[in-house]
Amino acid sequence: MAKYRQVHVEFWQDGFVLDLTPEEKYFYIYLMTNSKTSQCGIYELPKRIIETETGYNRETVEKLLKRFIDYGKILYCDKSKEIMIINWIKYNGIRSPKVIACIKKELEAIKNKDFVKSLASLCQQYGYPIDTLSIDYGEEEEKEEEKEEEREHAADAANFYQENFGVISPYIADSIQKWEEDLSSEIVIEAMMRTLAQNKRAWGYTESILRSWASINLNTLDQILAYELQRTKANQANQNSKDKSSSGRAIPDNFDFNLEAGED
Length: 264
Fold this sequence. Notes:
Blueprint: H1 15-18, H2 22-33, E1 42-44, H3 47-54, H4 58-70, E2 74-77, E3 82-85, H5 88-91, H6 97-109, H7 113-125, H8 139-164, H9 170-182, H10 185-197, H11 203-215, H12 221-246
Antiparallel strand pairs: 1-3, 2-3
Helix pairs in contact: 8-10, 9-10, 10-11
Keywords: Coiled coil
InterPro entries: DnaB/C_C, DnaD, DnaD-like_sf
Region (Disordered): 235-264
């Protein structure tokens, strides 16, 4: 972390800055010079630290953060407590090899990978000489998170069976896992819910529902719902067509249908 930050004298003549209130100017300077700032312009800045260092209360801090987000000057992530000063690399893009190495090291520690992607895009836009291909965008972490979610969903489907159908046998547990791999945990649970709606608790009935969906390549819950809606509309249209074709003037009971009428 640097011991100081430089502010260009032109800062005070900038059109955007000239229109800021004194409070906003103070806050903007703080964001660029506080004790947590980094060389890449993305750094962790908890709201509690902002309160302590600026003397503002939480309400004012959140108001000012939102205001500068709306101005398009910063991004803030409540989950990771990280902030990104959007134009930082534009005005502080020092091209020293040591600084570039420092930036790459800082980027590795950033938790919000969307911020990292945004900075890489800005580096390309402004011609900043950093190897964006070597930057960790968190794809591996995202894949691992997706796998973890799949494992959690799998547990959810098995738990749903045990809570609503009864003790799960190894055979059914294996069958549930295979259907989740072929379709998804969400669809397996939906099929079990429909089984229960028919007052049944047989896994075979659930599998028949899953097979019917798989046979027509319905691989997501949205596809299933859309297909069923389309089928319902088609059935209603067919029924309306039948009703129209069967409608007409009723023949009176006492009507004498004489085929020879009108002949000489």
